[in-house]
Amino acid sequence: MKKKFLATAALAALAFSLTACGGTNTPPPADDSSSDASPTAAGAASGYSLVPKDTNGDGFITLGFAQVGAESGWRTANTQSYKDYFVEANGFKLVFLDANQDADKQKQDVRDLIAQGVEVIDLAPVTDSGWEPVLQEAKDAGIPLIVSDRQLSVSDDLYLTYFGGNMEEEGKTAVKWLQDYITANNVTDPINILHLQGTIGSTAQKGRTKALDDAAPANDWNIVFQQTGEFTQAKGQEVTESFLQQGKDFNVIYSENDDMTYGAIDALRAAGKDPKEYIIISFDGNKSAVQMVVDGLIDVIAECDPLLGPQVGDLIKKAEAGEQIAKITYSNESYIDSTNAAEKVKTAFGS
Ligand code: GZL
Fold this sequence. Notes:
Blueprint: E1 34-35, E2 40-41, E3 61-67, H1 73-85, E4 92-98, H2 103-116, E5 120-123, H3 132-140, E6 145-149, E7 161-164, H4 167-184, E8 192-197, H5 203-219, E9 222-228, H6 233-244, E10 252-255, H7 258-270, E11 279-284, H8 287-294, E12 300-303, H9 309-320, E13 324-325, E14 328-330, E15 335-336, H10 341-344
Helix pairs in contact: 4-5, 6-7
Beta-D-galactofuranose binds near residues 71, 74, 150, 231 and 283.
């Protein structure tokens, strides 16, 4: 139990039962991704009929991947999963473009992929706005487009399918963990939260922020600081340092990815503070972050799976074969805390 909390002793983690994602108390099985309730024939029912095909007859499907950037450990693992899977041995060729977290550049990247005549596009959008014209251009060019990692709030007839995390559910998982921790430990102290947001306008940030913004007033929690750390360690440290200089009291850190969490921990240590005195909530599940859960530095990680390549490849092959694929398929995700970190660290992604 954290020193920053005034509470009567109680069995915390063992009393903790999370109704995460699928509403169960135990993490769902690893291969059980959840899909939208209304699967559609490769998009036909949603007004989208394009499916990936080897249109140039070279024996491969050429995938153009418009990646966000290289901002985090999650992104590194995500990129590697595509580069490992989309190879000729699996029937694919890969054209890879990196937007360096620049939303405008990424729109040009997709236009470049259209001009190159790739046979399917996978877009992992930096932010979720302004995409309709570009998606329409891909559709008009007859190139099927898949959205992965972060959703877009666009009409169903502009893309084939979405595969990736359910970001608001991830946030609800984290919030539920905090609610249960407070109850299990009979915490009576005011809850004052330092909130490190991801890239503003990305659905990862919007979903994770919404979950906290909805829960804070409902639980009488105070968000004493809310600012973007742009999903990077350096910016996460910089933002936390600037907050610490204000001298405000806080006892919880809600950090929307592991890299910003590392930065926050570095800032606490540089200020002579012990990270173990705070409840630290993080997102993703990089191996080093999971080890920090084992070591008692991070209290809970809401999982976000970066290894999307093979699953996107499977969706492409199913669509090519004329099979029905759901309009939305969410990765299966749960949480990591002191009750399961020692096991989870053995298979955690990245470094
Ligand atoms: C989530 C992904 C986010 C990760 C961050 O699906 O978009 O972007 O949580 C990454 O680590 O930068």
